[in-house]
Write a structure and sequence with these properties.
GO terms for molecular function: catechol 1,2-dioxygenase activity; ferric iron binding. The chain is of the alpha/beta class. The protein has helices at residues 15-21, 28-48, 52-68, 75-82, 85-92, 201-208, 277-282, and strands at residues 114-115, 119-120, 130-137, 148-153, 173-177, 183-188, 194-195, 214-215, 219-224, 231-237, 256-257, 260-262, 265-273. The longest helix has 21 residues, at 28-48.
Amino acid sequence: MINHPPAYDINPGNVTEKVIASFAMTSAREQQLLTSLVSHLHGFARENRLTHEEWAKAVGFLFRCGEISDEKRDEFMLLSDVLGLSSFVDMTDAPEGATEGSVLGPFYASDSPERPVGADLRPDGVGEPVLVQGRVLDPDGRPIPGALIDMWQTAENGLYATQDQTLPDDAFRCKMRCDAEAGFSFVTVMPGPYKVPDDGPVGDLLHAGGRTAWRPAHFHFLIMAPGHRALTTEIFFEGDPYLGTDAVFGVRRSLIVAPLQDQGRRRVDLVFRLVPAALSEAA
């Protein structure tokens, strides 16, 4: 039985200490994070002299985030994104030598079908074709054969297949195993820019703050290989009008590419670099 200090006789000067002392997490790291979280939450309330009405409004906001979330929409992930927290963690936790990461976003679905290299992701082959091809390498340029590419994007209308009921649920997304040369390729369409969902509490926050909800067009990639640290990133395109005002702060200069012309169609060439898991842990 954990011996907690008495929780009565609390006051603004000791409540933070008593709350922290009431927790005894089995993981030292979890205890550290929880201690810091409680300290900063209480510090925020103390610094700003938070009123009961303001506290209740914040709790109600979080309740609404949970209420609108489902298996196809994660409002808490979206909140993290628009507050820049997702990008902050991506950047500060990035291993040296890997391709820069970017946000996962609220529309990732883990059940994308596995397709062969060279697959056409367009439903019935409809839409202006774009060839996307690339390789997965380690920081020294050595290929990583068998790396798994998990890719998803919007259609030209700026909607993901999970949002657009006119599209098959698995349109414009796939998993793909790289070949013996660590290569991958698929045919798709250029994704359209879109607004993050602004019909919920996060949208209300953006509107209240005079923020845009628009994101530049992009491909999402989640890349995994045994013995290597997984990479979550995005690919953006030169000339997109929303590159400088991305609602979720996901754009990085190194992730902006210029599509090429190849035999009458556009082509996007990519190289992704994964670091060994041991190297990323040491960093």
